[in-house]
Amino acid sequence: MDYMLFFKFFLGLVAIINPVGLLPVFVSLTSHQTDVERERTNRVANFAVVVILLVTIIVGQYILNMFSITLSSFRIAGGSLICLIAMSMLQGKMSEVKRNKEEDRESSGMESVAVVPLALPLMAGPGAISSVIVFASEHDSVISLVGMFITVIAFGVLSWLLFRMAPVIFKLLGNTGINVITRIMGLLMLSIGIEVIAAGLKGLFPTLVG
């Protein structure tokens, strides 16, 4: 098992989902909840994210085959989407690909925000799902699948710990600190998106892209 490969996959999830950047959103969405309710929201949200990503790993390739979409084409589409989200992160704001004004209004009236909008689409959004499908399609051996499962679960644990300490972290970093981290993650995410697009172009046009 190539541990560095899965470490890179783990860092990619951290950059794309950016749980640190979502801390203000988590604090805002759970501001009306008690400590017990906030912890339950944290648990349910991260469990939902893990389940969504694990299911994506299993059925992602079948979905591409169902619609006769080549991996190269999906790489270009997914990479473009990742770059779009990354550009918003570099400006210190959340892309409307993840969340729009209508969803903001709907979520403000919800009693439970764990699954929608926190887990989906804020965490397990289009960028995360597309990157997982691309990675799973490229590494489809049993050992690779086991490695991806472990990596996704490890990310879920990390995200749960961060959200559990959200009030403290948010107080220490403040908006400025979180915006700096979001911009750094956005730069890493933009690099990942460009790499994915380049691989897709190479697959579609092998004679043009050396």
What's this model, at a glance?
The protein is mainly alpha-helical and 210 residues long.
Structure report:
35% of the residues are buried. Helix 1 (3-17) packs antiparallel against helix 7 (126-138). With 210 residues, this protein is an all-alpha fold. The chain has a domain at 1-32 and 70-108 and 184-210. It is built from 9 helices and no strands. Residues 107-111 have low confidence and may be disordered. InterPro entries: Multi_antbiot-R_MarC. This is UPF0056 membrane protein. It is a multi-pass membrane protein.
Mean pLDDT metric: 86
By secondary-structure content and strand pairing, the structural class works out as: mainly alpha
What is the ordering of alpha helices and beta strands? HHHHHHHHH
How many helical elements? Answer: 9
**What is the straight-line distance between the termini?**
29 Å
Radius of gyration: 17 Å
Residues in helix, %? over 70%
**What gross morphology would you assign?**
globular
- Strand percentage lies at under 5%
Largest sheet: none
Flag low-confidence runs: 107-111
DSSP strand count: 0
Subcellular location: Cell membrane
Keywords: Cell membrane, Membrane, Transmembrane, Transmembrane helix
Pfam families: MarC (PF01914)
Membrane topology: Multi-pass membrane protein
